[in-house]
Each structure stands twice: as C-alpha cells, then as structure tokens.
Design goal:
This protein is 42% helix and 19% strand. By secondary structure, the protein is α/β, with parallel strands linked by helices.
Amino acid sequence: MEELEIKGIKYKLPIYLPDATRAVVKSTDSLDLKGAKVEGAVVNTYHLMTDPGISVLKDFGGIKRFMSFNGLIASDSGGWQIFSLIHRSKNLGSITDKGVTFSIGTKKKALFSPEKSIEVQFGIGSDIVICLDDFTPPDARKEKIRESVERTILWAKRSKEQYLKMLEEKGMGDKSRPLIFSVIQGGFDKELRKYCAEKLL
C-alpha cells in the first residue's frame, strides 16, 4: 500500500476526503468526523476567500482551529466555482492566460490568478494546495481542449513559482510545508491527457 507523508504525518493511500466546501461537512460536526475516523477533508478556496474571508481564518490560527478538526486538509484551487459562473454567463467574467476575471456583486471585478489562488490557500492553512487549472465542458472542441491544457500547464508553472516564493517567505521546510498538486486536463482525449501529465511532471 502506498503512503503519502505530509508535515511529518504518514497517510495510507487511497484516502477518503469528504467535501467540506465551507469548512464543514454537511450534517456533521468535527466530533462526528473524529468518531468515524475520517482522516481529512477538502475545503473550497473560493468560498472560504469570500466567506468568512482569509483574515478571519488567520485570526483563528488557520482552517483546522476554525473547524476544530486536526485532520488532513486539502483545498481545491477555487477555479471550478468561478468558471462554472462564467460558463453559465459570459457577462460574469472572462478567462485568459492572466487568470480569471469575474464579477463580485454588481459592479466590482476581480482577477483570480494562479498566484492569488496559492496565496489564499496558504492563508487557509491547508496541508495540500492545488494549482489553478483551466477545464472545458465535456462537449468542447479539440482546439478548445488543447487551449485549456496549455493554460493549465502555464498556470501550474506560475502556481509552483508562487508556492516556492511563499515557502521561502514563511521559512517552511519539509516538515512544515504543504504539498502542491496539479490537475491533469485534456477532456476525453487520451493523447492530450498524456501530454498534459508529462508537462505537469
């Protein structure tokens, strides 16, 4: 059986991480998670950035104290939530190589970049941070899928650069740093997925 070591703790793989989008697994509390021997959870970067906000999480001392749960915490990049809004209505924002520009409320627009995503995930206090990636609907044309693959690779490079910068700023070594994961894109095209995986590696 494979193992993954994060911050000095070993986890056996595969591992089940329930969805705790807003820092809570629906219909349960931290005692339920501990009682069921759940080892960790996945939280959502975009939603936590929006509410309660990173400053609140920092005041608490990180996501684990906020949740009253000491298990493994992975944070997804937040991209899917923003993209799904834009895919529903182009008026809500746009996706370019710079990042995702989206509307907050009725007037204000914000840029959510690969660097911003990593910065926010460090603010959350995650054990696993995920690179911002660009995805396509299942029925996307091949040229659109290829574009999303190239953008995913570009964003992963920028995400890792920001990750390394933040490790240095915070003085984090092997026993204190989070791990960084990337996401393979390419839709149903096996060759594009293989290409994406190789470039990400």
